[in-house]
Request: fold
Amino acid sequence: MFETLSRGRRVTTSRSFLNSFLVIVGTLILLVLLFELLGWPFLKTPLTHLMEKQLERSVKIEGPFKIRLLGGIRAQAGSLWISAPQGFSEPHLVSAQEIELKLRYSDLWGIPPEDPYMIKGIQVGRLDARLARLENGDSTWQFSKEKHDAPRPFPIIQSLVVKHGTVNIDDVLTDAKLKIDFNTKEGAAQAQSTSEVKLDGHFRGQPMHGQLTTQGFLPIANQSKDSPPVSSTGWLEYGKVTLKFSGSVYDALGEQKIKGNLHISGSSLGQLGDLFNVTLPTTEAFTIDGDLNKNETGWGVKVTSAKVGRSQLSGDFHYDPRPEKATLNGELKGKRFILADLAPAFGNDPGSPDKDKVFPDKPLNFTSYNRMNANIGVDIDYVDLGKAFREPIAPLKANLNLNKNKLSLAKISAKTATGSLSGTISIDAHEQPATNLNVDQDKPHRPPEWAVDLVLKEIDLGKLIAVSPSREKQFEAGKTQEKSYISGKLNGEIAVKGIGESTSQLLSSLNGEASLHVVDGDISHLAMEGVGIDAAQALGIIIKGDANLPMECAVVNFKAKDGVAFSQLSLIDTPVTMLLLNGDIQLHQEQLNLKMRAYPKNFSPLTARSPILINGTFKHPSVGIKKAPIAARVIGGIGLAVINPFAAIIPFLDPGESDPMKIKECKATAEKIKQRVDESS
Reply:
């Protein structure tokens, strides 16, 4: 009996416990259902505190607030507000209204730290973000100054709808004040996924406007390497530069892949370089058509056609931003390059108020030299040197190198007028002070240093220089040829250095030497007699016709010191007349102070025997005759007027591939003049 009662009590107790458990479970289920129906409103406060702790910012979540936890996480909030950090005037970092978030539990649990979270969908009615950065580098999007391990990648969002969004950017370091408006409609429920982004404001001191339209933002943001590309079109205006893009974009938050066609036009390549923070020269107006390919290694640009002024170029380049200093490698090619199209790179401004100057004093932009390193091969078929030259450089091969603020055009190999030009041109810009950064103001500023080392060999002057009688024709072997005032094979060396921020400053500090000589040459008889002011001889030549005289010696040697170029030895010697040039050229003032004397070797009753003075400026030179005639009629008189060290030029007289006897005659002439000078002194 007792055992029966005990067994009954145990059964009753078990049933009571089971009933209590079922009641508790049922109550919990009812509570979960009730809270699910109500949207778990009491979770708003702990969720707010959790976000504040993680973001280290003030966070506000306003109602209506609801969270659904059954079958996945679905959250709704009337608004979400995240503050900007202290020290910023922005009202917030993010302010969003009408927010809906969908998550799957399977996409949240057990995800490795290196993998992104998956978000099923986000919908926002209105979004306003304020992105600001100060001069010291602090920004509103910087959540912690502590160093952490590599952060988890940005989440993959499968569906995103933003009815209207605005991002305001205020960045002191890049001088950017931009407003970006965007709206997106996409996902499985959308018949046509579209995204549109509009941009307005200014960037690096230039106005900027643009628009991008895609099939949808989310496929672009998808980080899957196998995700399909998204068709995209857009345009951007930066100052006077316009870019148009048509192609595909995908994996924007991962490897950031872009592929498509690019059309760019603008007033100068230099402004395009400012936009992308790369080094490009200041040029005439340009248009560029090519293919763009952006992947994990950087930017690849294949330029199929580039027109700069009247120049026609092409090229293949790769820009890698990953090293500590970005690198640009590639090859620049071209069918035709007009040297005048690069005139703005040297400060040449047609609208400059100083119209009396040939060389501008406008400071050049060297700050771009520290943006990157570059190694570009140059291979151009045809280089037009300008109206003063008949023949182009064809071809021009060189290596353009930019490393540690030093730009050099090295390994120059150029062919022109059956001759060649080789050497190196370099600019060492040193480290330029950075803008909008705290730099050492006590650090002395070092102006750029220039160096030119060129060697000229066997250049045919008759073919190179466009100096000839006005349409006078000479008939030889049944062919009509334009007659030149001067011809011969030009050889020599140019080695000069200078310091300066502008072309004018460079010339005013120039030091070095230019030594040129002509072999196998001839010169117009009429020109020689005209310079000698021999009226009788000139009249006779006009009557019977001009005929060139052989040049037994033709040498030009100038030595520059602190911006003043002195004539060491400049002469032209023919069987009938010797011309001697001496004086100096003030490069900074662009002032000519030269005197040319003619010493005829034959008798003429109408010879003035007065030196010709070449004065004035480069822009407005003046040529006149000295009123007091020189009585000397023989070559010995040269020694009374010239005190230059003629022997200094003799080592530079190289016959090249011409007849060595020609150079011996020139050396003999130089030695003869030196002897007369020694006797006179």
Residues 2-38 form the longest helix (37 residues). The mean pLDDT is 76. The chain has three domains: 34-141+152-173, 267-432, 465-680.
